[in-house]
Design goal:
The complex is a heterodimer of chains A (953) and B (255). Chain A is α+β, with helices and mostly antiparallel strands and 953 residues long. Chain A is 42% helix and 13% strand. Chain B folds into 2 domains: 2-117, Proliferating Cell Nuclear Antigen (Box); 135-248, Proliferating Cell Nuclear Antigen (Box), CATH 3.70.10. The chains are: A alpha+beta (953), B mainly beta (255). Chain A: Residues 938-947 have a biased composition (Polar residues). Chain A: Residues 1-285, 919-953 are annotated as: Disordered.
């Protein structure tokens, strides 16, 4: 449903083609859509009548009240106080009338604040209240004369919800509120504040420092309350009401503050809600992650657990899924650093979608949440350049290019700029609200555009998206387009939320509505649920690693008994690449032997090339993927040609895990990675190949329609040897040996290094030896040749900041701040400052390449100690391989903080730059988990203390 | 069956010129009354309406209403193949998925036809009623074009101040500011006079980019009518001789 901005313009109900209107002054009598009263002439009284007719339940008494209210409004009296009086009066009424009273209260309020508005916007009511008030004060006189303008403004503010739709932004508090009124009326001695019917969700954003202070006071109150309240009422309700009390108090403060000194509001939230004032550019601060205490997080979770997936969803069954719901969820996710809370928010959204939407809706939402537009192996990415976005923002908001660029330097986030600079330009007609499906479809369209004039077309599409955005939608649309959502939502959390949602709300029979089981947690003990959840998460994660394609996996998951059969339904498929299994680094043979005590294992040469996953379909089509699931088929025409040479006669289809290595046919020797990486990357033709690639196969995941990954390695290897044929310079099996003696292994490692290999891979052979896609498993260990030189494994780190060079290094960056990546929190955590290992050329080259990525302030996702203040910050782009003497506990670096020491992180000592890792994305950098492992491993080595060796199993 | 014949293909060219940079594709709604078009640019700042009445065509035949969704980019390319004096015939079958453009040279010695695929476009229609105006300005279209061109040098937005005495177009930018004032002409000779009908003084700002684009319609008509009102978008109307009009609605900037 839409609303016209302009009194002269009305949307036709648009069935048939209607001839254009003749220039007659007669008003058109075409049917208006409900809820859009657009004619300027309609006075406030007629409007309120419309309202009444729409909401037929309103009683006459309410009308009276409303009139009173209108008078009151004109007198500009304090609304809040009035409401309180009213509430007290109503409290004295009989208990039976509780419900109607509740609605009436709502109604009356809605009306008195919405002179021009028909929408009942329960959620946003209080915000509008403030807005309305302010607008009124600002242009008290103007209001009547320039009706259409103020009308338009409100429409914009209110346009997020429609008459038909339920208010957006799911409100778990809403339900709680009802219960609370009951509480109060049964024990009428409790504080009056509790009845203030203002659901407010932004618990986290609002619960700021003041509240923490308040909390303690409230706690006492709570105790008193508890005594009064019926024993039947569960403690959770009380907890909820505690939170509500906090909110309510807070709001009261707001309103008082407003009356006294309107302009001096310090609260960020409040500032956001202010209507965008003319000419003043209001900066929305980057939402800072709130680090809640364990207690506040608990409280938040309690509230979230009350979520009703139907009532609080924000839209109704059968209606298209609005994008706003997701944007609001993103906003909540961004405002917290608690992973549990993040997952809970997302779980609730997924539950609503499962009940009210279709499976396709769920898939769409998942893709939008992980900022992808399809399975990642298809390689379609958004990543729109800032230049296009800047011009699209400037055109859709009517601000000058220069202005946007200037702001970008100041604010550093285009999304925030776009959100803030909305509307210096009026529009003819507000486009319909964005839906999830329409957003994803547009994203796909944008990503698919290429070639001639694609920039302009992209820009047009982006503009059409932006013009339909409201509130925070703009922020997340822009960030999604950039390909950097950056709200602290890792894909892992999405999978977890998905598992949890499916477990909580098993809803298979779509004809049954509402579902029988709304929340399974209410029917079982917490421990029982936690146990089931663990199992579900493990299954879903493994299923996704086997079939990394949500389009295929989600339908299997949401069907009846989907959770129990998911592993069977989502097995490996040829043509769908899986993330390869990775190995844990070790510091030496002895450590490796400790791990594999009493287990059979095998040693394999670790070839220094590029990981390649070769898929061969039954029709003979061959595709090759890298470790990042990029399609490198075009890079290896020689391998594709060779496939026929190395497969056995019975082989029809397969997935082979192997290493592609440069090979010199003249000397029959393996070439180094440096030489091999000089091969061209795209659209390679046979005649361009100077360095032939030889395939060293070490694992077989799939053969002739059957997945092998659940077989032990010894079996997989057997099948591999049976079905493939070695061919010199083209295809070899990775050299292996089932030795177990330390000296033999040492000799074997030296042999591997002699043969231009990186080191050894040691793998379990029988026990615990299934193939685990996308896992860095402890069942695969790598011993690098660096070990021989007394060094540990290198780390791949991301430069996120730099200091200007001095002396000889003037003009370039002299030192860099490096960070590792924390997958759980989607954060970059600092672990060292590096200034050695660079050549002069490298220094100037890095300065050049990193300069375009300079940002003004650190991203939210950087975890940096205040003591570290680099001269410039970078957005994470590059990955560097770095060696260090050892790792130590550091009070200023934040890597893996909390894992080893509650407040201190881990830092590298004497870091030294080795090379750039072009094959890795910042998210593929060494994870903080790995840093912890490395730290612990060296501890084992240093102290020869082997007692804690198994703690990671 | 729909068939319409225009004596000059150049008319369609001229109509397309100011539209094609604002809108990618649009529905040409054909009915017994005539051909009409309503389209908005992607940012929804401007609304374009076009009317070509059936009686203005050389011949016009339309049994039932139909909507021709066309890519204006392709249409523009095709029209480049037409001579200015060619006759133009537009043909479409009912329920067709293509439309045919036939160009015929005046001597009938060269006939070309182009079939264009139709697009499925969302058909949002708006009723537009005449709004109260604060000021109506009629002026030579070339004059408006020149004003827009001259002011574009200085800045991006133009402020229009209209009262009984005249209309002032002001612009300000980094390098300075400028004003051009147009006064009603006293000698009421000919069509090219400037007239101002003002009820109340009005001041509004607009993005110059759009105005400049509209003035590409100058070849369509010697005069242009600006309807300015405080509460509604500005309307810029180019009358097309004997057949209809092309109107641009432009939403003002918020100051």
């Amino acid at each position: 449903m839409q609303s016209s901005m302009w009194s002269f313009l009305q949307k036709k109900n648009g069935e048939a083609v209607v001839p254009p209107p003749q220039p007659t002054p007669q008003p058109k009598s075409s049917p208006k859509k409900k809820g859009t009263t657009t004619t300027k002439s309609s006075s406030s009284t007629t409007k309120s009548k419309t309202t009444n007719s729409i909401k037929s339940k309103v009683e006459k008494k309410v009308e009276k009240e409303q009139e009173e209210d209108q008078e009151e409004e004109e007198e500009q009296e304090d609304e809040e106080e009035y409401i309180k009086q009213e509430e007290q009066e109503e409290e004295e009424e009989e208990e039976e009338e509780e419900k109607p009273k509740y609605t009436r209260l709502r109604k009356r309020k809605t009306m008195d604040l919405d002179e021009d508005e028909e929408d009942t916007k329960k959620d946003k009511k209080d915000k509008q209240d403030k807005k309305e008030k302010k607008e009124k004060k600002e242009k008290k006189e103007k209001e009547r004369s320039v009706d259409a303008f103020s009308f338009m403004k409100q429409k914009q503010a209110a346009a997020t919800s429609t008459k038909k739709n339920e208010p957006l932004s799911p409100s778990p508090a809403k339900e709680v509120k009802k219960q609370k009124i009951e509480i109060t009326s049964s024990s009428s001695t409790t504080t009056t504040t509790t009845t203030t019917t203002k659901p407010n969700l932004k618990v986290k954003e609002e619960v700021m420092e003041e509240e923490k202070e308040q909390e303690e006071q409230e706690e006492q109150e709570e105790e008193e309350e508890e005594e009064e309240v019926d024993e039947k009422i569960a403690t959770s309700n009380v907890l909820d009401s505690l939170i509500d009390d906090i909110e309510d108090d807070d709001e009261e403060q707001y309103s008082e503050g407003e009356d006294e000194q309107e302009e001096d509001e310090q609260d960020e939230e409040e500032e956001e809600e202010k209507p965008k004032k003319k000419q003043v550019f209001q900066r929305k601060e980057t939402i800072s992650k709130k680090k809640g205490t364990a207690k506040t997080i608990q409280a938040d979770l309690k509230v979230l657990a009350q979520y009703n997936p139907i009532k609080d969803a924000g839209w109704e069954k059968g209606n298209p899924l609005p994008y706003m719901v997701l944007a609001k969820t993103f906003e909540k996710i961004e405002s917290t650093s608690s992973r549990l809370t993040i997952i809970e928010h997302l779980t609730n959204l997924f539950r609503s979608i499962m009940i009210l939407g279709t499976t396709q809706d769920l898939i769409t939402t998942i893709y939008l949440s992980i900022n992808k537009i399809g399975p990642s192996y298809l390689g379609k990415e958004l990543g729109i350049g800032d230049k296009i976005l800047i011009s699209a923002i400037s055109e859709s908001t009517g601000r000058s290019l220069q202005f946007v660029k200037q702001e970008l330097k100041k604010v550093g986030d285009l999304g925030i700029i776009a959100q803030n600079s909305r509307m210096t330009q009026k529009v003819m007609f507000q486009p319909p609200p964005l839906t999830m499906a329409s957003v994803l479809a547009k994203f796909k369209q944008i990503a698919d555009l290429s070639g001639n004039a694609s920039q302009k077309k992209k820009s047009e599409l982006i503009k059409s998206l932006l013009v339909a955005c409201k509130d925070c939608e703009t922020l997340y649309i822009i960030r999604s387009l950039q390909g950097k959502l950056r709200i602290g939502l890792a894909e892992r959390s999405v999978l977890l939320a998905l598992s949890k949602a499916v477990l909580c709300t098993p809803y298979f029979n779509k004809s049954e509505f509402p579902p029988k089981v709304m929340d399974i947690r209410k029917t079982m003990r917490l421990e029982e649920f936690e146990e089931k959840l663990l199992d579900a998460v493990a299954k879903v994660t493994r299923a996704y690693s086997q079939l990394p394609n949500y389009d295929l996996m989600v339908p299997m998951l949401v069907k009846e008994n989907g959770l129990s059969t998911i592993l069977h339904d989502c097995s490996l498929e040829v043509g769908v690449p899986v993330k390869p299994m990775l190995a844990q680094p070790t510091t030496g043979i002895s450590q490796m032997l400790d791990r594999f005590t009493d287990m059979e294992f095998t040693c394999e040469f670790k070839y220094d090339g590029e990981r390649a996953q070769i898929h061969c379909l039954e029709n003979g089509n061959v595709t090759i993927y890298t470790r990042n699931l990029e399609d490198y088929t075009g890079k290896y025409p020689d391998i594709i040609q060779n496939v026929k040479k190395f497969i056995g006669p019975t082989v029809k289809s397969f997935i082979l895990d192997c290493e592609a290595v440069g090979y010199d046919p003249a000397t029959n020797k393996i070439l180094s990675f440096q030489v091999f990486s000089s091969r061209p990357k795209k659209n390679v033709t046979m005649d361009k190949i100077k360095i032939p690639a030889c395939v060293f196969a070490f694992d077989l995941l799939y053969l002739n329609g059957k997945s092998l990954i659940d077989e032990p390695l010894v079996k997989r290897r057997e099948v591999l040897y049976e079905n493939f044929i070695e061919s010199p310079g083209v295809f070899s099996f990775a050299k292996h040996s089932n030795i177990s003696d330390v000296n033999d292994i040492q000799a074997y490692l030296e042999e591997a290094v002699e043969g231009n290999c990186e080191g050894l891979m040691v793998k379990t052979l029988k026990e615990k030896s299934i193939y685990e896609p996308s896992r860095r498993s402890y069942n695969w260990l790598k011993i690098k040749k660096d070990y021989l030189q007394g060094m540990t494994d290198s780390l791949d780190l991301v430069p996120i900041g730099a200091w200007y060079g001095k002396g000889k290094r003037t003009g370039t960056y002299g030192a860099y701040l490096l960070a590792c990546y924390d997958e759980d929190n989607d954060e970059f955590q600092t672990c060292c400052k590096i200034g050695t290992g660079f050549s002069d050329e490298q220094l100037s080259m890095f300065t050049e390449t990193l300069k375009p990525h300079v940002i003004n302030q650190p991203r939210n996702m950087f975890r940096v100690n205040d003591q570290i203040k680099p001269d410039v910050w970078f957005s994470p782009t590059a990955v560097w391989e770095v060696l260090a003497a050892d790792l130590s506990i550091s009070p200023i670096h934040t890597a893996a903080s909390g894992a080893v020491d509650p407040n201190k992180g881990i830092a590298l000592r004497f870091p030294r730059f080795i090379r750039i890792r072009e094959d890795k994305n910042p998210e593929d950098a060494t994870s903080s988990e790995q840093v912890v492992d490395m730290y612990k491993n060296q501890k084992i080595n240093n102290t020869a203390n082997q007692s804690n060796k198994d703690e990671d199993y | 069956m729909f068939e319409a014949r225009l004596l000059k293909a150049s008319l369609l060219k001229k109509i397309l010129e100011p539209i094609k940079d604002l809108v990618d594709s649009a529905n040409f709604d054909c009915s017994p009354v005539g051909i009409s078009l309503q389209a908005m640019d992607s940012t929804h700042v401007t609304l374009i309406t076009l009317l070509l009445r059936s009686d203005g065509f050389d011949s016009y035949n339309c049994d039932r209403s139909l909507s021709l969704g066309l890519s204006l980019v392709s249409l523009n390319k095709i029209l480049k193949c037409a001579g200015n004096d060619d006759f133009l015939t537009i043909k479409a079958r009912d329920e067709a998925d293509t439309v045919t453009f036939v160009f015929e040279s005046p001597k009938s010695d060269r006939i070309s036809d182009f079939e264009v695929k139709l697009l499925e476009l969302k058909n949002d229609q708006y009723n537009i009623r005449d709004s109260d105006y604060s000021a109506v300005v009629k002026m030579p279209s070339a004059e408006l074009q020149r004003i827009c061109r001259d002011l574009s040098i200085m800045g991006e937005n133009v402020t229009i101040t209209a009262n009984k005495e005249g209309v002032k177009f002001s612009v300000s930018g980094d390098s300075g500011s400028g004003n051009i004032t147009v006064r009603p002409t006293t000698d009421t000779e000919a069509d090219l006079a400037t007239t101002i009908e003002s009820k109340e003084p009005v001041v509004l700002s607009f993005a110059l980019k759009f105005l400049s684009n509209f003035t590409k319609a100058t070849p369509l008509s010697p005069t242009v009518k600006l309807t300015i009102s405080e509460t509604d978008p500005i309307v810029i109307e180019y009358k097309i001789d004997d057949i209809g009009y092309l109107r641009f609605f432009l939403a003002p900037k918020m100051d």
